[in-house]
Specification:
Helix content is 67%, strand content 0%. It has 326 residues and is mostly helical. The longest helix has 32 residues. This is Aquaporin 2.
Amino acid sequence: MTTNVVHLRDVQARSKFFTIWEKHRHTTVHWLVECFAEFLGVFFYVYAGVGSQVPFIVGPILSIDGLSSVLQIGLAYACGIIFAIAICGSTSGGHFNPAVTITLMLFKGFPAFKAVRYIIAQILGGYIACLLIYVQWHDLITASELVLAAAGTLDSALFTPQGPAGAFGLYVIPGLSLGRVFLNEFVTDVFLALVIWGSIDPTNVLVTPQLAPFVIAIAYAAAIWGFATPALAANPARDIGGRLAAMTIWGKQAAGGRYAAIAALTSIPATILGVFIHELLLTDYARVIPSAQREYMEVHLNHAHAPGKAASDVSFNEKADLEHNA
Protein backbone atom coordinates (compact mmCIF):
# COMPACT_ATOMS: atom_id res chain seq x y z
CA MET A 1 0.00 0.00 0.00
CA THR A 2 1.11 3.58 -0.55
CA THR A 3 3.14 5.28 2.18
CA ASN A 4 2.43 8.81 0.93
CA VAL A 5 -0.42 9.41 3.35
CA VAL A 6 -1.83 12.85 4.10
CA HIS A 7 -4.28 13.19 6.99
CA LEU A 8 -6.73 16.05 7.29
CA ARG A 9 -4.87 17.33 10.36
CA ASP A 10 -1.75 17.74 8.20
CA VAL A 11 -3.38 20.38 6.00
CA GLN A 12 -6.19 21.88 8.05
CA ALA A 13 -6.08 23.34 11.56
CA ARG A 14 -8.74 22.42 14.11
CA SER A 15 -9.86 24.06 17.35
CA LYS A 16 -8.33 22.85 20.59
CA PHE A 17 -11.64 21.47 21.85
CA PHE A 18 -12.06 19.12 18.87
CA THR A 19 -8.37 18.16 18.95
CA ILE A 20 -8.76 17.01 22.56
CA TRP A 21 -12.04 15.27 21.68
CA GLU A 22 -10.38 13.26 18.89
CA LYS A 23 -7.89 11.76 21.35
CA HIS A 24 -10.83 10.22 23.20
CA ARG A 25 -12.84 9.56 20.04
CA HIS A 26 -10.20 7.10 18.80
CA THR A 27 -9.76 5.38 22.17
CA THR A 28 -12.27 5.37 25.03
CA VAL A 29 -15.43 6.44 23.18
CA HIS A 30 -14.76 5.10 19.70
CA TRP A 31 -17.58 2.58 20.17
CA LEU A 32 -20.00 5.44 20.86
CA VAL A 33 -19.04 7.27 17.65
CA GLU A 34 -19.57 4.11 15.59
CA CYS A 35 -22.92 3.40 17.23
CA PHE A 36 -24.02 6.99 16.63
CA ALA A 37 -23.16 6.58 12.94
CA GLU A 38 -25.30 3.41 12.78
CA PHE A 39 -28.11 5.21 14.61
CA LEU A 40 -27.93 8.20 12.27
CA GLY A 41 -27.73 6.05 9.13
CA VAL A 42 -30.94 4.18 9.99
CA PHE A 43 -32.50 7.48 11.04
CA PHE A 44 -31.81 8.89 7.55
CA TYR A 45 -33.23 5.77 5.87
CA VAL A 46 -36.40 5.67 7.97
CA TYR A 47 -36.91 9.43 8.13
CA ALA A 48 -36.89 9.68 4.34
CA GLY A 49 -38.94 6.54 3.68
CA VAL A 50 -41.59 6.70 6.39
CA GLY A 51 -41.87 10.44 5.84
CA SER A 52 -43.09 9.57 2.35
CA GLN A 53 -45.36 6.74 3.52
CA VAL A 54 -47.41 8.93 5.87
CA PRO A 55 -48.84 11.24 3.16
CA PHE A 56 -49.45 8.20 0.94
CA ILE A 57 -51.78 6.85 3.63
CA VAL A 58 -53.43 9.96 5.05
CA GLY A 59 -53.90 11.67 1.67
CA PRO A 60 -56.70 9.38 0.42
CA ILE A 61 -58.37 9.36 3.85
CA LEU A 62 -58.48 13.18 3.89
CA SER A 63 -59.31 13.36 0.16
CA ILE A 64 -56.09 15.24 -0.59
CA ASP A 65 -54.71 14.24 -3.99
CA GLY A 66 -51.07 14.04 -5.04
CA LEU A 67 -49.38 13.82 -1.64
CA SER A 68 -47.35 10.68 -2.40
CA SER A 69 -47.16 7.48 -4.46
CA VAL A 70 -45.44 4.09 -4.45
CA LEU A 71 -42.91 5.56 -6.88
CA GLN A 72 -42.17 8.39 -4.47
CA ILE A 73 -41.87 6.02 -1.50
CA GLY A 74 -39.37 3.83 -3.33
CA LEU A 75 -37.32 6.86 -4.32
CA ALA A 76 -37.50 8.25 -0.77
CA TYR A 77 -36.13 5.05 0.77
CA ALA A 78 -33.44 4.97 -1.93
CA CYS A 79 -32.44 8.55 -1.10
CA GLY A 80 -32.33 7.66 2.60
CA ILE A 81 -29.96 4.78 1.87
CA ILE A 82 -27.68 7.01 -0.21
CA PHE A 83 -27.59 9.61 2.58
CA ALA A 84 -26.90 6.94 5.20
CA ILE A 85 -23.99 5.33 3.36
CA ALA A 86 -22.53 8.60 2.09
CA ILE A 87 -22.64 10.46 5.42
CA CYS A 88 -22.24 7.71 8.02
CA GLY A 89 -20.69 4.72 6.25
CA SER A 90 -17.07 5.80 6.62
CA THR A 91 -17.45 6.05 10.42
CA SER A 92 -19.13 2.75 11.25
CA GLY A 93 -18.65 0.62 8.15
CA GLY A 94 -22.21 1.27 7.00
CA HIS A 95 -24.27 -1.72 8.17
CA PHE A 96 -27.58 0.08 8.94
CA ASN A 97 -29.38 -3.27 9.07
CA PRO A 98 -29.27 -5.94 11.82
CA ALA A 99 -29.35 -8.68 9.19
CA VAL A 100 -26.21 -7.25 7.56
CA THR A 101 -24.48 -6.92 10.94
CA ILE A 102 -25.28 -10.53 11.88
CA THR A 103 -24.13 -11.77 8.46
CA LEU A 104 -20.84 -9.88 8.76
CA MET A 105 -20.37 -11.45 12.18
CA LEU A 106 -20.81 -14.93 10.68
CA PHE A 107 -18.82 -14.48 7.46
CA LYS A 108 -16.24 -11.78 8.25
CA GLY A 109 -15.58 -12.21 11.97
CA PHE A 110 -17.29 -9.00 13.07
CA PRO A 111 -17.10 -8.96 16.92
CA ALA A 112 -20.28 -10.29 18.56
CA PHE A 113 -20.44 -7.73 21.37
CA LYS A 114 -19.92 -4.92 18.90
CA ALA A 115 -22.70 -6.40 16.75
CA VAL A 116 -25.12 -6.20 19.69
CA ARG A 117 -24.30 -2.52 20.19
CA TYR A 118 -24.75 -1.84 16.47
CA ILE A 119 -28.15 -3.56 16.38
CA ILE A 120 -29.42 -1.62 19.40
CA ALA A 121 -28.27 1.64 17.79
CA GLN A 122 -29.92 0.71 14.48
CA ILE A 123 -33.29 -0.08 16.07
CA LEU A 124 -33.10 3.11 18.14
CA GLY A 125 -32.47 5.12 14.96
CA GLY A 126 -35.65 3.75 13.38
CA TYR A 127 -37.63 4.31 16.58
CA ILE A 128 -36.62 7.95 17.04
CA ALA A 129 -37.15 8.72 13.35
CA CYS A 130 -40.72 7.37 13.48
CA LEU A 131 -41.57 9.29 16.65
CA LEU A 132 -40.32 12.53 15.10
CA ILE A 133 -42.27 11.90 11.89
CA TYR A 134 -45.42 11.29 13.95
CA VAL A 135 -44.97 14.63 15.73
CA GLN A 136 -44.37 16.43 12.43
CA TRP A 137 -47.50 14.89 10.84
CA HIS A 138 -49.55 14.76 14.05
CA ASP A 139 -52.32 17.14 13.00
CA LEU A 140 -53.03 15.37 9.72
CA ILE A 141 -52.72 11.91 11.28
CA THR A 142 -55.22 12.88 13.98
CA ALA A 143 -57.54 14.34 11.35
CA SER A 144 -57.40 11.10 9.35
CA GLU A 145 -58.28 9.09 12.47
CA LEU A 146 -61.29 11.33 13.06
CA VAL A 147 -62.45 10.77 9.48
CA LEU A 148 -62.15 6.99 9.88
CA ALA A 149 -63.92 7.13 13.24
CA ALA A 150 -66.79 9.14 11.71
CA ALA A 151 -67.11 6.52 8.98
CA GLY A 152 -67.10 3.73 11.57
CA THR A 153 -63.98 2.09 10.10
CA LEU A 154 -61.24 3.25 12.50
CA ASP A 155 -60.98 -0.02 14.43
CA SER A 156 -60.85 -2.15 11.28
CA ALA A 157 -58.48 0.11 9.30
CA LEU A 158 -56.08 1.62 11.83
CA PHE A 159 -53.66 -1.31 12.01
CA THR A 160 -53.57 -2.12 8.30
CA PRO A 161 -51.40 -0.82 5.44
CA GLN A 162 -54.20 1.68 4.69
CA GLY A 163 -54.44 2.97 8.28
CA PRO A 164 -52.39 5.79 9.87
CA ALA A 165 -50.52 3.33 12.09
CA GLY A 166 -49.50 1.40 8.97
CA ALA A 167 -46.94 4.03 8.09
CA PHE A 168 -45.00 3.24 11.27
CA GLY A 169 -45.64 -0.38 12.19
CA LEU A 170 -45.84 -2.76 9.25
CA TYR A 171 -49.03 -4.78 8.74
CA VAL A 172 -50.48 -7.09 6.10
CA ILE A 173 -53.59 -6.57 4.01
CA PRO A 174 -56.37 -8.57 5.73
CA GLY A 175 -56.90 -11.95 4.09
CA LEU A 176 -53.39 -12.49 2.72
CA SER A 177 -51.73 -15.85 3.30
CA LEU A 178 -48.93 -15.48 5.84
CA GLY A 179 -47.08 -18.30 4.08
CA ARG A 180 -46.96 -16.33 0.84
CA VAL A 181 -46.16 -13.15 2.78
CA PHE A 182 -43.16 -14.97 4.27
CA LEU A 183 -42.11 -16.20 0.82
CA ASN A 184 -42.39 -12.66 -0.58
CA GLU A 185 -40.21 -11.30 2.23
CA PHE A 186 -37.64 -14.10 2.06
CA VAL A 187 -37.07 -14.04 -1.70
CA THR A 188 -36.91 -10.24 -1.82
CA ASP A 189 -34.41 -10.14 1.04
CA VAL A 190 -32.21 -12.75 -0.67
CA PHE A 191 -32.29 -10.55 -3.77
CA LEU A 192 -31.24 -7.51 -1.71
CA ALA A 193 -28.43 -9.45 -0.01
CA LEU A 194 -27.01 -10.54 -3.36
CA VAL A 195 -27.00 -6.95 -4.61
CA ILE A 196 -25.42 -5.60 -1.40
CA TRP A 197 -22.68 -8.23 -1.30
CA GLY A 198 -21.99 -7.87 -5.00
CA SER A 199 -21.76 -4.09 -4.65
CA ILE A 200 -19.20 -4.24 -1.83
CA ASP A 201 -17.14 -6.98 -3.51
CA PRO A 202 -13.72 -5.28 -3.88
CA THR A 203 -13.07 -7.14 -7.15
CA ASN A 204 -16.27 -5.94 -8.84
CA VAL A 205 -14.84 -3.75 -11.59
CA LEU A 206 -18.28 -2.47 -12.66
CA VAL A 207 -19.37 -1.24 -9.22
CA THR A 208 -16.85 1.19 -7.75
CA PRO A 209 -17.07 2.29 -4.09
CA GLN A 210 -18.58 5.58 -5.25
CA LEU A 211 -21.28 3.77 -7.23
CA ALA A 212 -22.14 1.11 -4.63
CA PRO A 213 -24.53 3.29 -2.55
CA PHE A 214 -26.59 4.05 -5.64
CA VAL A 215 -26.75 0.41 -6.78
CA ILE A 216 -27.86 -0.71 -3.30
CA ALA A 217 -30.38 2.13 -3.09
CA ILE A 218 -31.90 1.26 -6.47
CA ALA A 219 -32.23 -2.38 -5.36
CA TYR A 220 -34.24 -1.31 -2.32
CA ALA A 221 -36.40 0.97 -4.47
CA ALA A 222 -37.05 -1.88 -6.91
CA ALA A 223 -37.99 -4.16 -4.02
CA ILE A 224 -40.51 -1.60 -2.75
CA TRP A 225 -41.97 -0.97 -6.20
CA GLY A 226 -42.44 -4.66 -6.90
CA PHE A 227 -43.12 -6.32 -3.56
CA ALA A 228 -44.14 -3.84 -0.85
CA THR A 229 -47.88 -4.42 -1.39
CA PRO A 230 -47.80 -8.13 -0.36
CA ALA A 231 -45.89 -6.87 2.77
CA LEU A 232 -42.17 -6.14 2.88
CA ALA A 233 -39.97 -5.07 5.80
CA ALA A 234 -36.51 -5.54 4.19
CA ASN A 235 -34.73 -4.19 7.28
CA PRO A 236 -35.39 -5.39 10.86
CA ALA A 237 -34.27 -2.02 12.26
CA ARG A 238 -36.94 -0.22 10.25
CA ASP A 239 -39.57 -2.81 11.21
CA ILE A 240 -38.79 -3.15 14.92
CA GLY A 241 -38.08 0.56 15.39
CA GLY A 242 -41.27 1.50 13.59
CA ARG A 243 -43.35 -1.09 15.41
CA LEU A 244 -42.07 0.06 18.81
CA ALA A 245 -42.95 3.62 17.81
CA ALA A 246 -46.47 2.52 16.79
CA MET A 247 -46.88 0.73 20.13
CA THR A 248 -45.65 3.83 21.95
CA ILE A 249 -48.31 5.90 20.16
CA TRP A 250 -51.28 3.48 19.93
CA GLY A 251 -50.50 0.84 22.55
CA LYS A 252 -50.15 -2.95 22.41
CA GLN A 253 -52.78 -3.22 19.69
CA ALA A 254 -50.13 -1.99 17.26
CA ALA A 255 -47.94 -5.07 17.83
CA GLY A 256 -48.86 -6.66 14.50
CA GLY A 257 -49.85 -10.17 15.58
CA ARG A 258 -48.24 -13.19 13.91
CA TYR A 259 -46.93 -11.08 11.04
CA ALA A 260 -44.59 -9.22 13.42
CA ALA A 261 -42.22 -12.20 13.64
CA ILE A 262 -42.09 -12.52 9.84
CA ALA A 263 -41.31 -8.83 9.39
CA ALA A 264 -38.68 -8.70 12.12
CA LEU A 265 -36.81 -11.97 11.58
CA THR A 266 -37.12 -13.17 7.97
CA SER A 267 -34.44 -10.82 6.67
CA ILE A 268 -31.79 -12.46 8.87
CA PRO A 269 -31.78 -16.02 7.41
CA ALA A 270 -32.54 -14.59 3.94
CA THR A 271 -29.50 -12.30 4.08
CA ILE A 272 -27.31 -15.13 5.35
CA LEU A 273 -28.48 -17.32 2.45
CA GLY A 274 -27.93 -14.56 -0.11
CA VAL A 275 -24.41 -13.91 1.13
CA PHE A 276 -23.66 -17.65 1.22
CA ILE A 277 -24.75 -17.94 -2.43
CA HIS A 278 -22.53 -15.00 -3.37
CA GLU A 279 -19.53 -16.34 -1.45
CA LEU A 280 -19.99 -19.82 -2.90
CA LEU A 281 -20.72 -19.03 -6.54
CA LEU A 282 -19.81 -15.40 -7.30
CA THR A 283 -16.88 -14.43 -5.06
CA ASP A 284 -13.45 -15.11 -6.61
CA TYR A 285 -10.29 -14.41 -4.59
CA ALA A 286 -8.17 -14.89 -7.72
CA ARG A 287 -9.52 -11.66 -9.21
CA VAL A 288 -7.52 -8.46 -9.27
CA ILE A 289 -8.70 -5.55 -7.10
CA PRO A 290 -9.30 -2.50 -9.38
CA SER A 291 -7.54 0.77 -8.60
CA ALA A 292 -10.68 2.57 -7.37
CA GLN A 293 -11.35 -0.17 -4.81
CA ARG A 294 -7.67 -0.23 -3.78
CA GLU A 295 -7.75 3.50 -3.13
CA TYR A 296 -10.92 3.12 -1.06
CA MET A 297 -9.28 0.35 1.00
CA GLU A 298 -6.12 2.39 1.47
CA VAL A 299 -8.04 5.37 2.80
CA HIS A 300 -9.71 3.22 5.44
CA LEU A 301 -6.65 1.19 6.35
CA ASN A 302 -4.51 4.30 6.75
CA HIS A 303 -6.93 5.59 9.37
CA ALA A 304 -5.01 3.52 11.93
CA HIS A 305 -5.85 3.82 15.61
CA ALA A 306 -2.26 3.27 16.75
CA PRO A 307 -1.29 5.71 19.55
CA GLY A 308 2.20 7.10 19.07
CA LYS A 309 2.67 5.42 15.72
CA ALA A 310 2.48 7.18 12.37
CA ALA A 311 0.10 5.65 9.87
CA SER A 312 2.91 5.27 7.36
CA ASP A 313 4.83 3.18 9.91
CA VAL A 314 2.02 0.67 10.33
CA SER A 315 2.10 -2.37 8.07
CA PHE A 316 -0.85 -3.40 5.89
CA ASN A 317 -1.66 -6.36 8.15
CA GLU A 318 -1.36 -4.25 11.31
CA LYS A 319 -3.71 -1.67 9.85
CA ALA A 320 -6.22 -4.33 8.92
CA ASP A 321 -6.10 -5.74 12.46
CA LEU A 322 -6.46 -2.30 13.99
CA GLU A 323 -9.46 -1.42 11.85
CA HIS A 324 -11.07 -4.82 12.44
CA ASN A 325 -10.71 -4.60 16.23
CA ALA A 326 -11.54 -0.92 16.55
